[in-house]
Amino acid sequence: MVEFGGKRDGMAGMERFDFVIVGAGSAGSVLADRLSESGRFRVLVLEAGGRDRSPWVHLPVGYGKLFYHPKLNWAHMSEPQPNLAGRRDYWPRGRVVGGSGSINAMVYCRGLPKDFEDWAAAGAQGWGWQDVRAAYEQLETQVAQDGTTSGSGKISVSDVGDQIHKVNRYFFDALGEMQMPVTSDINGPQPEGGTVYRLNTRGGRRCSSARAFLAPALKRRNLTLRTGVQVNRVVFEGRRATGVEVVMGGKTQTISAGEVILSAGAVASPKILQLSGIGPADHLRAHGIKVRVANENVGGNLQDHLGINYYFKATQPTLNNVLAPWYGKVLAGVRYGLTRRGPLALSVNQCGGFFRSSSGVSVPDQQLYFNPVTYTTARVGTRNVINPDPFAGFIIGVQPTRPTSRGRIDIKSADPADAPLIRPNSLDTEEDRAGAVAGGRLCGHIMRAPAMGALVRAPMGADIRHMDDAGILEDFRARCGTVFHPVATCRMGADARSAVCDSEMRVFGTEGLSVIDASAFPNLTSGNTNAPTMMLAYRAADFILQRMRAQ
């Protein structure tokens, strides 16, 4: 356990803070900085994982090492999914300061403007595109290829187009041959089309919210971070949340708070609410938990992106040729050490973009990834390890952007140490099955371009160039997986009939309790969810500070 600062109530020996934030992830780190900035409030951040000191966290390409890392990753598994051939899907989640923002692939994607208009239409008042756009601009500093910057935000959004592998040119050539759009910035005024993904990196290192917001803020005397802390439940007096019950150093104790903020993520935040008696009444009673607020939406409305990759051996050298042999790793390491550039400074996701699967689609309905690498997962001792293949290869992958299937996350028992039940209910709707087919068709269309034909040596498994609709869907059911974007399990909205929180993320039926993380999304955004999670926390801090000033 690591501790910085701390305050105690002299009467009872119980620690007291103005704010207790549960989770030091993408949202919690932003909140910790902003709520402690004035020096007026005592803020405590509780993190179940450890500090983000591992070099693999800060090395951008270290994503491959973190994907199965047992100490830094919760490594959840879903329940068997009937629509995915009965398979259990792997759900990595960050178990470290920075949360999933410390183990993800760092693609910085705001989402499409239509996503946030849909948020407002779903009952999240004040969350339309123009509202959130201003917050993004305050959050970000844009870093150009030559290192010049614009903006003054704490999250660096880097244009790495001059560093990507040269084999990516085949992807852009194919888009030109098939008369498909290209854009210079997926977060810009024209987000549709093929692009080099912008990354939240700074100086060749991961720029997580923990690095950008939390680490500098920990110099303040009024901010405390504790790691290795299990939060059992929220403590109440009547309707008001007054603290949290935790296990620290093997001992159970209560920490008192003026306000409690759950920022534990789309998996853990609904779990903590249910353990606290807030959730589906029958399910809570079945586990012997007294119902404090009956709300079926707690843990419900689960949304996530499903994606699939198509693998090909290549006629031209790819990142496999650089990172598979030992000497390639050494050379890449030397280059990175000297310049903070090269393949180790990049994400495995280098190119892709938003596309429409047909002319009849009003907004982009597919997100593509083109990665100049293929890899296999091997078992080494007790750990799974991802390694680049020893031959040239590349991946084209796709995820439908706005799934309509809805799942649930619920407690398995009243024991806080038990992982929750994750039931994504994937491909439950005809719209989602049609979206999977449309995404496969789109990949097949691009792969039949002459440029891609010149790059392909042979398919590795399913060949999307020659599959009919039935084959695409059957293959998708057999091989697809989460793209690690779970949201909406504590969604905000107009009232408790359809939501868990109001538009300022205060939990219905309670006082002094908020949920501020991706679980509060009303709907899934079209792309990667780390950027909108940080934006959401940034705006939520404004709401909290405005309320405090009004008191």
Q: How many structural units, i.e. domains? A: 2
Instruction: Let me know the largest β-sheet.
Output: 7 strands, mixed
Note the beta-strand portion: 15-25%
What is the CATH topology of the largest domain?
Answer: FAD/NAD(P)-binding domain
Shape: globular
Specify the CATH architecture of the largest domain.
3-Layer(bba) Sandwich
Number of helices: 15
CATH homologous superfamily identity of the largest domain: FAD/NAD(P)-binding domain
Overall SS class: alpha+beta
* First-to-last CA distance: 35 Å
Give the oligomer, counting copies of the same chain as homo and different chains as hetero: single chain
Contiguous low-pLDDT stretches (5 residues minimum) are: 1-13
> In CATH's first tier, which class of the largest domain applies?
Alpha Beta
The helix content is: 25-40%
What is the CA-atom radius of gyration, in angstroms?
23 Å
Count the strands? Answer: 27
Overall pLDDT confidence: 94
Report on this structure.
With 551 residues, the chain is α+β, with helices and mostly antiparallel strands. It folds into two domains: 1-126 and 204-304 and 405-426 and 484-551, FAD/NAD(P)-binding domain (3-Layer(bba) Sandwich), CATH 3.50.50; 161-197 and 306-400 and 428-479, 2-Layer Sandwich (Cholesterol Oxidase, domain 2). 27% of the residues lie in helices and 23% in strands. The protein contains 15 helices and 27 strands. Strands 1, 2, 11, 12, 13, 14 and 27 form a seven-stranded mixed sheet that branches. Strands 8, 17, 18, 19, 22, 25 and 26 form a seven-stranded antiparallel sheet that branches. A three-stranded mixed sheet has the order 6-5-7. Helix 5 packs across helix 15. Mean pLDDT is 94; it is low at 1-13.
